[in-house]
Fold this sequence. Notes:
By secondary structure, this protein is of the alpha/beta class. The chain has two domains: 2-82 and 185-298, D-Maltodextrin-Binding Protein, domain 2 (3-Layer(aba) Sandwich); 88-177, 3-Layer(aba) Sandwich (D-Maltodextrin-Binding Protein, domain 2), CATH 3.40.190.10. The protein has helices at 12-19, 22-28, 45-51, 63-70, 116-127, 142-149, 162-169, 192-197, 199-218, 220-231, 237-245, 256-272, 292-298, and strands at residues 2-7, 34-39, 57-60, 75-81, 88-93, 108-111, 136-139, 155-159, 172-177, 187-191, 251-252. The strands form three sheets. It has a five-stranded mixed β-sheet with strand order 7-6-8-5-9, with helices on both faces. Strands 3-10-4-11 form a four-stranded antiparallel β-sheet. Strand 6 (108-111), helix 5 (116-127) and strand 7 form a beta-alpha-beta unit. The chain is globular, with a radius of gyration of 19 Å.
Amino acid sequence: xxxxxxxxxxxxxxxxxxxxxxxxxxxxxxxxxxxxxxxxxxxxxxxxxxxxxxxxxxxxxxxxxxxxxxxxxxxxxxxxxxxxxxxxxxxxxxxxxxxxxxxxxxxxxxxxxxxxxxxxxxxxxxxxxxxxxxxxxxxxxxxxxxxxxxxxxxxxxxxxxxxxxxxxxxxxxxxxxxxxxxxxxxxxxxxxxxxxxxxxxxxxxxxxxxxxxxxxxxxxxxxxxxxxxxxxxxxxxxxxxxxxxxxxxxxxxxxxxxxxxxxxxxxxxxxxxxxxxxxxxxxxxxxxxxxxxxxxxxxx
Length: 300
C-alpha cells in the first residue's frame, strides 16, 4: 500500500524528510507500506489536497486545520512541534509612528493569509480590544513587500527564514514576536478515514518525523545548504542556518494545552468572521497515542 504524504517548503520537518526519504521508508518497510511524496509550493494547499484525498497526511501551521474543520473536512490531529517563540513577528519600519499593538487600528498589514500569520494577527488585535475588521490585511507578495519597505504599507508579518534575513538586511523594529501571543507550532494531521484504518502506519510516520527533526538539529549547516538550494526563495545559507538554530526541534503529542490554544483561535476566528462555522477542536483529536514512549509507558 502507498501512503501519500504532502511536502512543502513551509513545513521543514516534512520537506527535509521528503528529501531524505530513507529516514521514513525503512520504518514503513516493516509493515509493507511505501511513502509517495506529493510536493507543492504553498502549504495552504494541504487542506485542499487532503480533502480531495490526494494526500493522506500533511502538516501546516495552526490556521489551516481550523479552517478545515469549519469547512467540514474530517481531519485528525496527530502531533505538533514545540512552541516556536521567535519564528514569526510583526515588523514595522524604524521610523514608523506605531509604538504598540493598539496603534494597529486602521493600518495596512501584509501577511500570508490562511497561514499561522492570520492567527497571530487575530490574537494580537484581540489582545488590545480590536477586531480583524479594524485593520486592512493584504496578501503578501514581493510587490507588497517593496511597498512596505517604501513606506506605503504599515506592517509586515514575517516568518523565518525571511524574518532572519529582514532583521539583518533592513532597518526594522519588531512590534511583537509570536511569543506571548501564539505558540506558533507546526501541526501534523491526517484524514479521519486514514486514521481509522492506518494507526500502525501513523505511528511510524511520527517516528519518521522525529528522525527528520533530529537530523536537522544535528546537521544545521548541511540542512541550511539543502534548503537554500532546493527552496530557492532568495534566502542564503547563512540566514537559513540562523533560522534553523533559533527554533526548537522535536515533536510532542497532542496536549490539553494545545487543544485550548486551538480552541481559542477557532472561537476568535468565528467571532471575527474569518470562519463561518464554530468548531470543537477536541472532536478532531485521536484517542490513540501515536508516540512510542507513551505506548511503552502504558504497556501497549
